[in-house]
Amino acid sequence: MLFYKTKEEIELVRESSLLVAKTLAEVAKAIRPGITTLELDRIAEEFIRDNAATPAFLNYNGFPNSLCISLNAQVVHGIPNKDVLKEGDVCSVDCGVLKNGFYGDSAYTFAVGEVSEESARLLKVTRESLLKGIENAIVGNRLGDISSAVQEYAESHGFSVVRELVGHGIGRHLHEKPEVPNYGKRGSGLVLKEGLVIAIEPMINMGTKAVVHEKDGWTVRTADRKPSAHFEHTVAIGKGKADILSSFEFIEEALKKNINTKVTN
Ligand code: MG
Ligand code: MG
How far, in Å, CA of 43 to CA of 56, rounded? Predict the structure, then answer.
């Protein structure tokens, strides 16, 4: 079943998505070599609760934390722990919140300190592939137009697209229909209509597209252990132009002031 949202409901998703954006900006202020991913998780959980919201991922199907933090070869669903971030790490942070009965969901991949040229390019291309997808999130297009735009962009730059994990509808539930793959055929699939709100989230690998699941039951990593990146926006389908409900602006403002990392995008 597809849930189409009213304008009022979309505004509530926007409020939740902007809180996610501001939470990720708190992470951006703190991220540096030497900090643990668990410390970043605590910063996020406190900020979310201080803003009268609930961390969406905490206890979701038993997930133990508020953020999914996935380093280097980890693609998504990494569990925060006491490992410290190192110079050169590629650190994907995925965050969701529930506020006023509606979810917001967004992810950003950070360069910790100075990263390799190839990692910086992976982050840039992944982020740009998300924007290519969003450009196609307009009334009258089909879902496959979003999927193929992401895929074509990422593959044309020599990277590969994870198949096993996809974007999703979002609203009163964290994960709603439709599934939003990052690969597919132009002109295929669901016709996009006003009121549809989706999370578009390319997961792009430097090497093989194949992934494996770690024994912790959550973490997904690349089969060849090469780096992976992940960027995600919550987006409302719009007439002529998509309405991006989440934002990277707060994150990037924070990164500019953080002398311990570098804006690569
Ligand atoms: Mg997410
Ligand atoms: Mg998502």
Answer: 15
